[in-house]
Amino acid sequence: MTFICEILITMVNLSAIIIRPRSETRKHHLRGRRILLAPMVAMLCSSNLAQAVEAQPYYAGKNITMLISTSPGGATDVAGRLVMRHLGKYLPGQPTLIAQNMPGAGGIVAANYLSNIAKPDGLTLLAVNRANYLEQMVGRPEVKLDFRRLNWIGSFNRAPMMIVCRKDTPYSSIDAMRSAKTPARFGEGGTGSISFVFSSLVGEILDFKVKHVTGYGSAREIDLGLERGEIDCRATSDITLVRPPWPTWAQAGYVSFLVQQGPVKSRLLPQTVPTVYELAPASAKSTLNLMDIMAAYTDFDRPFATAPGVPRQTVELLRQGFEKMLVRCELCGGGKKTGGLGRREFSHRSRLAKAYRSNRKPTAGGHQTNQRNFARVTPKVVSESNTFPELMLAVLIGLPVRPRRFLFQ
Fold first, then answer.
1. Residue partners of 218: CB distance under 8 A and separation at least 6
2. 160-203, pLDDT tens digit by residue?
3. What's the rounded Cα separation, in Å, for the pair 252 and 242?
4. Residue 344: which residues within 8 A CB-CB, separation 6 or more?
5. Phi and psi dihedrals of 40, rounded to 5?
6. Which residues contact 101 (CB under 8 A, 6 or more apart)?
7. So where are the chain's domains?
8. Secondary structure of the chain in HEC code, one letter for each residue
9. What pLDDT digit, counting tens, does each position of 319-374 carry?
10. How far does Cα 25 stand from its chain's mean position?
11. How many angstroms from the chain centroid is the CA of residue 68?
């Protein structure tokens, strides 16, 4: 269109030279037509140029910063970097995503930054620490935002909790925990972490004592604490099993799996591991209900959000791109379209996030996945550390990975 406009303007400018009028009257007529034609061509070209500018995709030529609320190496960091690597190709204009770790206060530092400092332009995303909203609920002064005001983009998966102890400690079962002379030492980041909350509640429900060892900066630091003997146990999500060193620990029998959250058993754990619901006495029902509330977010694990005030159409672009990334799942098979999170499942995740934002109970239904469209990940994948990110994403989005076949046999 620009080329055509240039030709039209050139024709107008040359009209006086090419056409030589025989009379003054004819000359004035041609000059008048030229005066009228020139503005019309200019308006036409400027209008088309404006439309071309408006048609430019919003994210074209831009960079998106992916804030990660933890230190490098943990599950949140890996999930954030996976999204950073692949989300851009599903956004209009295919922007470049850049990761930036911003640990501190269990994820609150990054959340405060997103809400209070980041521009509301959709160019800053956050891999949110899933438990942070609990700290807002209990009124911690360091929380300087309202998590309900964040624009939630999507979530990968469901990740129920479990309790694991070193095999060479006296804490090989829940009964052993009850009868132990000294309480088991649990490693945690702080009092607001899900590890602290879950281990405390399970100890109350199943009647055993817990000694909290807090101050660890990341999940990897807690792993090192377990190896060094600084702690005996830890409470963590089942997705931990797919990142190093946990596959090696499981194969070598280095840890014992004492209990899992439930009520549905994890597909990553041995099916012999009991749930809290199975072991809980009837008298603990009120505490069990409290655990349901405090650990409710394990049903929408690894959430991503952008700042409050981002225009609705920009938020929708991010949500649509996130959904396409999971549904097509090109990152799960070396570039193949291997399938991914079903639309019904994704809609269920979205309803959970929207229900939290509006303080409403999510509607029932829509929680089924289309297993026929899922690709299978072979057992070989989990044993190779360099394929860990791809395996982790496969587990996160619900592909039927079955590592227990070779981790626990």
1. 70, 71, 72, 73, 74, 103, 189
2. 899 999 999 999 999 999 999 999 999 998 887 788 989 999 99
3. 15
4. 366, 367, 368, 369, 370
5. -65, -45
6. 68, 70, 71, 72, 77
7. 2-55, 161-297
8. CHHHHHHHHHHHHHHHHHCCCCCHHHHHHHHHHHHHHHHHHHHHHHHHHHHHHHHCCCCCCCEEEEEECCCCCCHHHHHHHHHHHHHHHHCCCCCEEEEEECCCHHHHHHHHHHHHCCCCCCCEEEECCCCHHHHHHCCCCCCCCCHHHCEEEEEEECCCEEEEEECCCCCCCHHHHHHCCCCEEEECCCCCCHHHHHHHHHHHHHCCCEEEECCCCCHHHHHHHHHHCCCCEEEEEHHHHHCCCHHHHHHHCCEEEEEECCCCCCCCCCCCCCEHHHHCCHHHHHHHHHHHHHCHHHHHEEEEEECCCCCHHHHHHHHHHHHHHHHHCHHHCCCCCCCCCCHHHHHHHHHHHHHHHHCCCCCCCCCCCCHHHCCCCCHHHHCCHHHHHHHHHHHHCCCCCCCHHHHCC
9. 999 989 887 754 444 433 333 333 344 444 444 434 433 444 333 333 333 322 22
10. 75
11. 10
- How many angstroms separate the CA atoms of 185 and 389, rounded? 30
CATH topology of domain 161-297: D-Maltodextrin-Binding Protein; domain 2 (3.40.190)
Could you tell me if 156 and 126 are in contact, meaning their C-beta atoms sit under 8 angstroms apart?
A: no
